[in-house]
Inverse folding.
């Protein structure tokens, strides 16, 4: 593996001094391979009885990881050291899955083996089909994903022992393999069409499109351009360091919970519109805006401090220059639209105009709010005929690889502990119970 453990910088330390009492504590400075220095505060509470306060983890590194690196100021995203644009242009999703899970690109034999493994895990236990029938037809597919992925733990008991490395890998392969099947079934269920079984002669992305769009009544031919675009979307969404859903998977996993339950927790977190739900929210927002002449009104709403409205698809906690995934997708977006001949799609015209106005607007420029990955993925997915409610599901499908890679990394770390943040308590101090008759 190309990773190294963090090193202590013996020439540097950070001293924290109590301005009233004068007590000082010296804390070590840690270095990763690249990225900001990290102040090691693990002994802070033990030595001073004080916590740090960092809601939203704005200044907190929650773990050591060798999987993904982001430089938000420079707009850099690396998977195991490889730049995202190189991987998106030259690699494919199964290879990226292998890379994220194992740390290195596979050789030909390793790749064939991995692809075979994933392909032959793509079917679902037949009884799981009945689970779908319990959902309302109008259920959001993310609700179905949370439920069905959580239920996998009751079907695959032979891969839930987290202390067995082999079982962990089988569970990881199962989730990567079955996610497209579950996602497509959630869609088929919502439109009342029969489920399509996976096909072992298709690639991962082709098979997903086949399960989404084929019907028993006629042959479905997968467009290579669309399959490639889908594969690229999967690569771009595969991992993103310690984001909210990945941190959720790690936190759930830190208690020793089984991997299927942990990934279901990640799916639930991803669903929110500030995270993975943003791609769906972008399309809903564009539909609400409706026409180019109303864009300014919405831009003004987004800038209004008294209005909670935000422009979905803009801004990022880490990227303050540009989102490198958005750069790749912007190009791919135009290719797909050319291939499909949907240049005159009104929502696309609206999106491009919104992008132009927001990029020139002082508020957005000053706050470094650039279009993020979700801005373009929503447009491509819509052009490909993917229903809006499935956008976040596709994000979850791709991110499953990152989740399982991060979960495996955490479980194999001998220093791993249950995640247990503390708090700054601001509630009532101790008081006596008052019987209801006296209140
Ligand atoms: N529209 C208008 N104003 C915004 C936006 C936006 N999309 N995003 C941030 N701001 C403003 C925000 O009001 C704040 O202003 P002020 O400093 O005056 O209070 C400032 O920019 C900083 O925002 P923040 O909320 O403190 O930043 P954050 O790092 O906590 O939030 C974010 C990041 C992605 C949640 C946020 O930018 C947002 O809500 N964007 C829209 C939702 C979205 O597109 N999410 C997808 C993120 S990319 C996919 C993923 O990784 O999940």
């Amino acid at each position: 593996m190309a990773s190294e453990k963090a090193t202590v910088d013996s020439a540097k330390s950070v001293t924290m001094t109590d301005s009233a009492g004068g007590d000082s504590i010296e804390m070590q400075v840690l270095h990763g391979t690249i990225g900001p220095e990290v102040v090691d505060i693990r002994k802070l509470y033990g030595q001073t009885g004080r916590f740090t306060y960092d809601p939203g983890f704005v200044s907190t590194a929650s773990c050591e990881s060798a999987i993904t690196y982001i430089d938000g100021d420079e707009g850099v995203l690396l998977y195991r050291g490889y730049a995202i644009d190189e991987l998106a242009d030259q690699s494919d999703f199964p290879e990226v899955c292998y890379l994220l899970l194992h740390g290195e690109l596979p050789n030909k034999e390793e790749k064939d083996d991995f692809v075979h493994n994933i392909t032959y895990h793509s079917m679902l236990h037949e009884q799981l089909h009945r689970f779908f029938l319990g959902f309302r037809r109008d259920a959001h597919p993310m609700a179905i994903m949370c439920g069905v992925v959580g239920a996998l733990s009751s079907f695959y008991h032979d891969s839930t022992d987290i202390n067995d490395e082999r079982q962990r890998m089988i569970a990881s392969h199962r989730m990567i393999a079955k996610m497209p099947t579950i996602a497509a079934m959630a869609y088929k269920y919502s439109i009342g069409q029969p489920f399509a079984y996976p096909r072992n002669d298709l690639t991962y992305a082709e098979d997903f499109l086949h399960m989404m769009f084929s019907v028993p009544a006629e042959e479905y031919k997968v467009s290579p351009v669309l399959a490639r675009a889908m594969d690229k979307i999967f690569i771009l969404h595969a991992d993103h360091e310690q984001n909210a859903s990945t941190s959720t998977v790690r936190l759930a996993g830190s208690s020793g919970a089984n991997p299927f339950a942990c990934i279901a927790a990640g799916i639930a977190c991803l669903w929110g519109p500030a995270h993975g739900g943003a791609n769906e929210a972008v399309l809903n927002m564009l539909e609400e805006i409706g026409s180019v002449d109303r864009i300014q009104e919405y831009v003004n709403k987004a800038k209004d401090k008294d209005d909670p409205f935000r422009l979905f698809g803009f801004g990022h906690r880490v990227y303050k220059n540009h989102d490198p995934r958005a750069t790749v997708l912007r190009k791919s977006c135009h290719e797909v639209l050319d291939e499909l001949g949907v240049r005159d799609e009104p929502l696309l015209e609206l999106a491009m105009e919104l992008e132009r106005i927001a990029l020139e607007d002082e508020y957005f420029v000053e706050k470094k709010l650039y279009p993020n990955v979700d801005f373009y993925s929503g447009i491509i997915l819509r052009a490909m005929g993917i229903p809006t409610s499935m956008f976040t599901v596709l994000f979850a499908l791709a991110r499953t690889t990152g989740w399982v890679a991060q979960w495996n990394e955490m479980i194999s770390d001998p220093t791993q502990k249950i995640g247990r943040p503390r708090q700054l308590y601001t509630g009532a101090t101790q008081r006596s119970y008052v019987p209801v008759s006296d209140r």
